[in-house]
Amino acid sequence: MVAFSIPSWFRIILLVLTIVSFLPQYYRIIKRADCSGISLTYALLNAAAFTEQIAIALFGVLRFDSDLYRPPGVNGWVDFAQCALACVCSLGIFAAVLNLQPERRGARAASFVIYVVYVVIFVGPVILLATAGPWKADEGMKGGDILVGLVHGIHTVFVDPILTILGLGAAVWAQALETSRRSSSPGALSVPGLGAQAVAFALLAICWPWRFDHGNSSGRDVLYWYRFFGWTYIHNALYAVGQAVLWWVAARRAAIGANGDLTILPETEPLLRSQATMGEPLNESR
Question: pLDDT band at 60, cuts 50/70/90?
Fold first, then answer.
């Protein structure tokens, strides 16, 4: 996973931008001390999809293809940190939803089990391969070539496309339904956070092609391109589009009620409740 064009300082800026894009969501969760309004399915599928990015990125420290492999330098490790950081931020939201959703205890337990099973079955073998010293030696992996190629193929041909295309799509659909069911306020879902993530990951998707050394890959087919390079472009692009869609849904829902009427903003709710307690009508004619 070695880049050749974008300088290190710009990669670090992208790293910081990723952190900043998640801060509004974390701030809203901490301020409210609950996660109502954030779909459990949305949090689970996002966590799984970003974890899959880490699984594939780990192959960057393995020598499994002589045409592409170069020992990872500073830029390569920064690129790996980019994938790892996005995964950690997504996992933090998933953990918050598991702990702070007021109801659905059974669903939360099931989601946690599903994620753990996924990590054990699919990510565990990748970690074992990445930490096996002899397969990272300069002389090559020897007997590990077939095993590494098999695991890499399973992830890049089957697991990653499913989680990236179907998983992220289902996550957006689940969150859009959750937001649409709410009368006005998006709850713990941060509308500015959705917009910030859409912008940040769109920029990441645009920049990723200039972070890889494509090596001797000219004339290869689309599947080859996706397996070794395209997986991260597509993931970041689809995630950016999904967050943009959710931003539009949440922003529209916060301003327009289910019947097309102007919705009361969350900041005005305490005042209106106090007026109702005092017996004052909410819509008093002059």
Answer: low
Average of per-residue pLDDT values in the chain? 79
- Tell me: pLDDT of 263 over 90: no
Break the chain into its structural domains and give their ranges. Answer: 8-277
Strand-pairing partners, residue 35, are: none
Q: Name the token pair of 27.
A: 């701030």
Angle at 139 between CA 137 and CA 141, to 5 degrees: 65
pLDDT top residue among 15 and 64: 15
Residue 171 pLDDT exceeds 90: yes
Helix and strand element counts for the chain (H, E): 12, 0
Contacts 24+ apart (CB under 8 A), 94-100: 94/43, 94/44, 94/46, 94/47, 96/26, 96/29, 96/35, 97/35, 97/38, 97/40, 97/43, 98/40, 98/43, 99/35, 100/29, 100/33, 100/34, 100/35, 100/188
Per-residue pLDDT for 258 more than 50? no
Query: If you search the block for the tokens 């998933």, which residue do you land on?
Result: 94
Q: At what angle do helices 40-57 and 74-100 cross, to 10 degrees?
A: 160
Beta-bridge mates of residue 256: 262
* DSSP string for residues in 117-148: HHIIIIIHHHHHHHT-GGGGSTT--GGGHHHH
Q: Number of C-alpha atoms within 13 angstroms, CB side, residue 75?
A: 17
Residue 157 is given by DSSP the state I
**Dihedral pair phi/psi, residue 6, rounded to 5°:** -65, 130
201 or 8: which leads in pLDDT: 201
Whole-angstrom Cα distance, residue 211 to residue 229? Answer: 10
Name residue, tokens 């941060």.
190
- For residue 96, the model assigns a pLDDT of 96
Find the angle CA(102)-CA(38)-CA(239) to the nearest 5 degrees: 155
183 close to 257: Cβ distance less than 8 angstroms:
yes
